[in-house]
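DM from R.C. (forwarded with permission)

"hey, sorry to bug you on a friday — could you get me a structure for this? deadline for the figure draft is monday and I only need the backbone to look sensible"
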Amino acid sequence: MFGWFKNFSAPSALRAAGVLGMNARNFHVIAKYNSRKLYPLVDDKVLTKTLANNIGISTPKLIGKIEFQYEVKNILDIIGDNKEFVIKPAQGSGGKGVLVITNYQDGIFTTASGRKITYKEVYQHISNILSGLYSLGGKYDKAIVEELVHFSDVFKDYSYQGVPDVRLIVYKGYPIMAMTRLPTKASGGRANLHQGAVGVGLDIQTGRALHGVLNNMPITHQPDTGADLLQIQVPFWKEHLFIGALAYDMTGLGYLGADIVLDARKGPMMLELNARPGLAIQIANGVGLRSRIKEVDKYYPSGLSAEERVEFVLNYKRAK
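My reply, with the result:
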């Protein structure tokens, strides 16, 4: 599956193979289809969550937010009776600054990895978020506290401690490529490929596993559990695609990444959106994004509703 990628050393050969590079993504796709004025709709997670809820997209419940340093001391009041929750930067990226608490009791916070931390450590973490340590461009940020997602049992053998998600690439409102990102011990329970999570490419029409990748190398089994990655089948697949299609309607961004989690009780929920999604998804799929983009431009109709776009994707007959 990696032959198409590893055997091409020249940029021209990669382009011929349908691979979308960073420069082409930035100048010919993002700059063309993502107006800068729309970026705040996805860069600010509080705003994204509000917009999503307004059009019926399910998201993890917002417990509270902290905007100023003098408010950090109110964190226990914000948490209230919640024993588990997530603290994250409103404008963070790449999973940086996300603190997952699986239990809070008697002044002690337990993280997803089982580590015990104190109120003082949580206070400092929130202060770091507000100072912009984890935000895009290092700007002053807000800290948000939201409910902890309980991921579906379908992923229990494939994920180490953290919450797995599905990344969809959406172009002109059509989901065109997908992968699931699976936390590992090396990634610290984070579903981030650059931090050591496993990526598994998913068939865009069925949600079935295609190929696994870890640190840009092929992999067939989850490194911590030994589970066969190629047995993954994401349930409620049509609902996942519908969230991605609606994200386009909600933001107007012609090229975006939609991160979706599958909660055991609430089904698919949109976690966040990204106006500059990464390109590693091509390796996990063994297919170039440039090819899929050209396909949409040439064969996919315009003017369809989100439901109609999803149906078109599910029934599209791709040339062999």
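R.C.: lifesaver. Residues 86 and 100 are 5 Å apart (CA to CA).
me: no worries. Residues 237-251 form the longest helix (15 residues).
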